[in-house]
C-alpha cells in the first residue's frame, strides 16, 4: 500500500511487473541544435525516451551523471570537450552504457579510436532516418 | 570441430571394443586355468580311485591264500603280512580319498559303510600273532588252539569277503566311472574354453586389424586433405593467414603473402611487425587497435567492416631493382567464432593495385573522353582537308619549337632568345587552330603560351625553367597524334592531294573570318584571289601572314556595323586578299575598308608599352610610326584573348617575310582603309637570299 503511494509521490514509473518493458533512456550529444532535433524526431522506438541533450562534452557528462542514460548518441567534434574524451569518461563511469558515434569525420582512424574508447556503433553524417534507426536498433538489441 | 568429434567417438569405440575383448580373454583364461586345475585334481583322484577298486579283490584273494596256507599247514606268516599290508594300504587310501574329496559323497559313504562291515571280521585275523601250528611227531603238524581259532576267523573273513568284495568293488568301480565321466566333462569344457579363447583372440586380432586399416585410411584422407589445403594456399591469389589471441600469425598461411610482403617468415610473426616497415606509424597504431577490437565482443561484423582502416592500404616497398614501388593492399578481417568466443581472426589480403590504378585511369580517361568529344565535335565541323593541312603544319610548327628548345644554350642571353621564337611559332599555330574552330587545341596552345610567358617574365633563365614547357609540348604532340588518328577513324579522309593547296588556304581563311565575325560582332566579306599560285616555298609563311592579317582586320580594322553606319559606310565590310606575280616577284595585297591605322594611336600604344620614349614619339614621322606595329611586344588590344592582343602577331609576319628576302608595305587612310603589300622575291632568288 505504502509502496504505491511512494511511487505516486516521486512520480517515477513503477518498476517490475507493472511496466511491460522498462523504457530505454537516451542522451543526445551534438553541438548542432539541428542535428539534435533531427535525431530526436527521427528515432522510431516506442520504448526509447530521450532524457536529455547536450551541446558539448562537459554538459554531456553533467547530464550523464544526473540521468544515467542507457544509450548515448555522440558527436565527435564539439567545443569544450570532444566526443572521444567524453566517450572514455562515460564508459569509465558506467561500462554498460551503449554509445553510438554520429560524426561527419569519415576517417577510419577516428572510428577505430572511438571504438577503442568504448563506443558501440558508428554512423556517418549525413545519415538517413533508416540508417539512424538501424544503428540504434543494433545498439539496443 | 566436426572432424575431431568423429575422431574422438571412434577412439572411444576402439578402446571399448579392445577392453571388452581383453576382459573376455581374461575371463576365458581364468576359467581355463580353473578348469585345468580341476581336471588335474580329478585325474589324481581317478588314479587314487583306480588303485582302490582292485583292493577288495586283492584282499579276498589274499584271504584265500591265507586259508589255503593254513589248510595245508604251510607257512602263513607271509600271506598274513601281505594281507595286513593290503588292508592297511586300502584303509590309508580310503582315508585319503575321504580327505581329498575325490569320490562322490554318496559313493564314498556307501563304500565306507561296506568297509566298516569288513572291520569286525578282518580285525581278529589281522590281530593274530603267534604260531598257528603245533608240531608233534605223531600227527605231524596240526593246528594249535590259537591256530584253529585263527583259521576259523580266516574262514569267516574269507566267506565275508567272497560275499562282500564284489559289492565293495562295484561301488568303487562305479565311483571311478563317475570320476572318469566328470574328468572327461571337465576336459571337454576346457577344450570349449580354449576354443572360445582362440576365437576371442581371433576377433581381437581382426578388430585390431580393422581399426588399423580404418585409421590408416583416415590418416591417408587427412594427409590428402592437408595436401589439398596446402595446394589451395599455394595457388590462391589472396593472402590468407590466421591471427591468434596474441595477434600472431599462425603456421598456416597462403603463398601469395610472400609476393605481397617480400618475405617468408610469417609463422609466429606479429601483425604489427608485418606492417611496421610498410605503413606510417599512425596507420600502424590504428591498425593494431582495430585488430584488438576484433577480439572483443562489443563490435559486430558489419560495423567492424565499415570502420576497417586497412580497406585500401598504400604500401611502399623496394621493387628489387633498387627503386620503390607503390602497391595497394586490401585487408579483410573475419572473426572465427568457436563455442568459447572468438578463436581466430582470419585475415584475407588482396592486391588491389590494378583495380585502384584502373579506377584512376578510368577517371582520367573519362576526362580525356570528354575532351575528345569536344574535339570530335570541332573536327566534324571542320573541313577534312583543312584539318589535315592544319595537323601537318601543327606537327611541323611544334617540331620547330622542340628544335628551339633543344638548341644548345649557356648564357642567360642565349636562353632569353628562345621564348620569343617559341611564342611566335605557337601564336601562329594557335591562330590556325582558332581559325578552324579547334577549340581544344587552341586552348592547349594557349596554355603552352602561358608557360612560355612565365619563362619570359623570369629575371634569369636556365634550362630547368623550360622543363614545364617540354613536358607540356610532349603532351600536346601526343594529343595531336590522337587527333590525327581520330580524324582518320571518323573517315575524315585527307584528300589534300586532290584539292589544290590554295583552295585549302582560302577555305581556312573563310572559316576563320566567319568565326571572327561571330566572336566580335562584326560583319564583313572576305574575297581571296590567286592563292592557288603561291609557290610551295612561301605557302607556310603566307598562310601565317594571311591568318594574322585576317585576324587584325576583323579585330582592329573592320568597325562594328553601327559605327560603319554612322560613317556612311556599307554595313558589311570588305576584306580582300590577292596573290599575284608582279614581274619577277610575287605580291600579296591585303586590304580592308575598315578604320585604317592612326599613326598617333600607334605611338601612344608604343609609349604605353615602353617601346619608345616620349621624345622619340614626338620626333617620329608617319613611316616610323607605322613600323611600330612590327615591333615585338607591340599590341593594340588590351589583355590577351585567343585571337588578338598577344602582341607577337605582326612581328611574326615581318620576321618571316624578311627571312624570305621579302618586304612589307603598309598604306592606310584613317576611316577608309588599310592595305598591306607583301612583296616576295622570285622563288630561285628566295633561296639565295635566304642563304645570304
List keywords for this structure.
heterodimer, A: alpha/beta, Rossmann fold, five-stranded parallel β-sheet, 45% helix, B: 692 residues, Beta-Lactamase, Four Helix Bundle (Hemerythrin (Met), subunit A), 4 domains, five-stranded mixed β-sheet, 12 strands, disordered C terminus
Brief write-up:
The complex is a heterodimer of chains A (141) and B (692). By secondary structure, chain A is α/β, with parallel strands linked by helices.
What would your notes on this structure say?
The complex is a heterodimer of chains A (141) and B (692). Helices cover 45% and strands 19% of the residues of chain A. Chain A has 141 residues and is α/β, with parallel strands linked by helices. Chain A has a single domain (22-140), classed as 3-Layer(aba) Sandwich (Rossmann fold), CATH 3.40.50. Chain A has a five-stranded parallel sheet, sandwiched between helices. In chain A, strand 3 (71-74), helix 4 (83-93) and strand 4 form a beta-alpha-beta unit. With 692 residues, chain B is α+β, with helices and mostly antiparallel strands. Chain B folds into four domains: 2-214; 239-351, Beta-Lactamase (2-Layer Sandwich), CATH 3.30.450.20; 365-494, Four Helix Bundle (Hemerythrin (Met), subunit A) (Up-down Bundle); 500-692, Heat Shock Protein 90 (2-Layer Sandwich), CATH 3.30.565.10. In chain B, a hairpin with a 3-residue loop joins strand 1 (133-136) and strand 2 (140-143).
Amino acid at each position: 500500500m505504502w509502496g504505491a503511494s511512494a511511487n505516486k509521490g516521486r512520480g517515477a514509473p513503477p518498476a517490475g511487473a507493472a511496466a511491460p518493458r522498462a523504457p530505454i533512456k537516451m542522451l543526445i550529444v551534438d553541438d548542432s541544435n539541428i542535428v539534435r532535433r533531427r535525431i530526436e524526431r527521427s528515432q522510431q522506438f516506442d520504448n526509447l525516451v530521450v532524457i536529455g541533450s547536450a551541446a558539448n562534452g562537459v554538459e554531456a557528462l553533467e547530464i550523464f551523471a544526473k540521468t544515467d542514460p542507457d544509450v548515448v548518441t555522440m558527436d565527435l567534434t564539439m567545443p569544450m570537450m570532444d566526443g572521444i574524451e567524453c566517450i572514455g569518461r562515460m564508459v569509465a563511469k558506467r561500462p554498460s552504457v551503449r554509445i553510438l558515434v554520429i560524426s561527419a569525420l569519415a576517417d577510419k582512424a577516428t572510428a577505430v579510436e572511438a571504438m577503442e574508447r568504448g563506443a558501440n556503433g558508428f554512423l556517418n553524417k549525413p545519415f538517413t532516418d533508416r540508417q539512424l534507426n538501424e544503428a540504434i536498433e543494433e545498439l539496443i538489441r | 570441430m566436426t572432424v575431431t568429434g568423429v575422431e574422438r567417438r571412434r577412439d572411444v569405440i576402439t578402446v571399448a571394443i579392445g577392453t571388452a575383448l581383453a576382459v573376455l580373454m581374461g575371463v576365458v583364461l581364468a576359467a581355463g586355468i580353473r578348469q585345468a586345475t580341476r581336471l588335474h585334481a580329478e585325474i589324481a583322484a581317478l588314479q587314487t580311485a583306480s588303485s582302490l577298486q582292485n583292493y577288495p579283490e586283492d584282499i579276498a584273494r589274499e584271504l584265500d591264500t591265507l586259508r589255503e596256507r593254513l589248510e595245508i599247514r604251510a607257512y602263513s606268516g607271509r600271506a598274513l603280512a601281505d594281507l595286513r599290508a593290503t588292508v592297511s594300504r586300502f584303509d590309508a587310501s580310503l582315508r585319503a580319498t575321504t580327505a581329498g574329496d575325490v569320490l562322490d559323497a554318496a559313493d564314498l559313504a556307501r563304500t565306507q559303510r561296506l568297509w566298516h562291515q569288513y572291520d569286525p571280521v578282518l580285525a581278529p585275523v589281522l590281530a593274530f600273532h603267534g604260531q598257528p601250528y603245533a608240531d608233534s611227531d605223531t600227527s605231524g603238524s596240526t593246528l594249535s588252539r590259537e591256530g584253529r581259532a585263527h583259521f576259523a576267523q580266516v574262514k569267516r573273513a574269507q566267506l565275508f569277503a567272497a560275499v562282500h568284495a564284489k559289492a565293495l568293488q562295484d561301488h568303487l568301480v562305479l565311483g571311478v566311472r563317475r570320476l572318469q565321466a566328470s574328468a572327461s566333462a571337465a576336459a571337454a569344457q576346457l577344450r570349449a574354453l580354449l576354443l572360445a579363447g582362440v576365437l576371442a583372440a581371433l576377433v581381437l586380432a581382426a578388430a585390431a586389424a580393422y581399426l588399423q586399416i580404418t585409421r590408416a585410411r583416415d590418416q591417408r584422407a587427412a594427409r590428402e586433405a592437408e595436401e589439398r589445403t596446402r595446394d589451395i594456399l599455394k595457388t590462391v591469389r589472396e593472402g590468407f593467414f590466421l591471427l591468434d589471441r596474441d595477434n600472431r600469425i599462425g603456421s598456416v598461411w597462403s603463398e601469395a603473402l610472400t609476393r605481397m610482403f617480400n618475405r617468408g617468415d610469417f609463422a609466429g610473426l606479429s601483425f604489427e611487425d608485418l606492417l611496421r616497415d610498410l605503413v606510417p606509424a599512425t596507420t600502424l597504431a590504428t591498425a593494431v587497435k582495430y585488430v584488438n577490437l576484433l577480439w572483443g565482443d562489443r563490435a559486430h561484423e558489419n560495423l567492424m567492416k565499415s570502420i576497417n582502416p586497412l580497406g585500401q592500404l598504400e604500401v611502399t616497398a623496394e621493387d628489387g631493382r633498387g627503386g620503390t614501388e607503390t602497391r595497394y593492399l586490401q585487408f579483410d578481417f573475419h572473426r572465427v567464432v568457436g563455442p568459447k568466443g572468438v578463436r581466430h581472426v582470419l585475415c584475407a589480403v588482396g592486391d588491389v593495385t590494378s583495380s585502384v590504378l584502373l579506377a584512376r585511369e578510368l577517371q582520367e580517361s573519362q576526362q580525356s573522353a570528354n575532351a575528345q568529344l569536344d574535339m570530335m565535335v570541332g573536327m566534324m565541323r571542320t573541313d577534312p582537308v583543312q584539318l589535315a593541312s592544319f595537323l601537318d603544319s601543327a606537327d611541323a610548327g611544334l617540331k620547330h619549337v622542340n628544335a628551339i628548345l633543344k638548341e644548345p644554350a649557356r648564357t642567360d642571353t642565349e636562353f632569353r632568345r628562345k621564348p620569343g621564337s617559341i611564342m611566335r611559332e605557337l601564336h601562329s599555330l594557335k591562330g590556325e587552330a582558332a581559325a578552324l574552330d579547334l577549340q581544344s587545341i587552341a586552348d592547349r596552345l594557349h596554355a603552352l603560351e602561358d608557360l612560355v610567358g612565365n619563362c619570359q617574365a623570369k629575371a634569369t633563365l636556365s634550362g630547368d625553367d623550360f622543363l614545364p614547357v617540354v613536358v607540356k609540348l610532349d603532351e600536346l604532340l601526343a594529343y595531336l597524334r590522337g587527333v590525327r588518328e581520330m580524324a582518320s577513324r571518323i573517315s575524315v579522309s585527307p584528300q589534300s592531294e586532290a584539292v589544290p593547296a590554295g583552295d585549302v588556304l582560302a577555305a581556312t581563311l573563310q572559316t576563320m573570318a566567319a568565326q571572327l565575325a561571330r566572336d566580335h560582332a562584326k560583319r564583313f566579306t572576305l574575297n581571296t584571289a590567286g592563292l592557288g599560285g603561291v609557290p610551295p616555298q612561301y605557302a607556310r609563311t603566307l598562310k601565317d601572314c594571311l591568318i594574322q592579317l585576317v585576324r587584325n582586320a576583323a579585330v582592329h580594322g573592320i568597325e562594328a556595323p553601327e559605327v560603319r553606319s554612322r560613317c556612311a559606310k556599307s554595313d558589311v565590310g570588305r576584306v580582300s586578299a590577292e596573290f599575284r606575280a608582279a614581274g619577277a616577284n610575287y605580291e600579296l595585297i591585303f586590304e580592308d575598308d575598315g578604320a585604317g591605322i592612326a599613326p598617333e594611336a600607334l605611338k601612344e600604344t608604343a609609349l604605353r608599352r615602353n617601346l619608345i620614349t616620349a621624345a622619340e614619339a614626338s620626333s617620329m614621322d608617319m613611316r616610323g610610326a607605322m613600323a611600330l606595329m612590327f615591333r615585338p611586344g607591340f599590341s593594340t588590344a588590351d589583355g590577351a584573348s585567343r585571337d588578338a592582343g598577344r602582341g607577337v602577331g605582326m612581328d611574326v609576319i615581318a620576321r618571316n617575310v624578311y627571312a624570305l628576302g621579302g618586304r612589307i608595305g603598309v598604306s592606310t587612310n584613317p576611316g577608309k582603309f588599310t592595305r598591306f603589300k607583301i612583296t616576295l622575291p622570285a622563288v630561285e632568288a628566295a633561296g639565295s637570299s635566304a642563304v645570304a
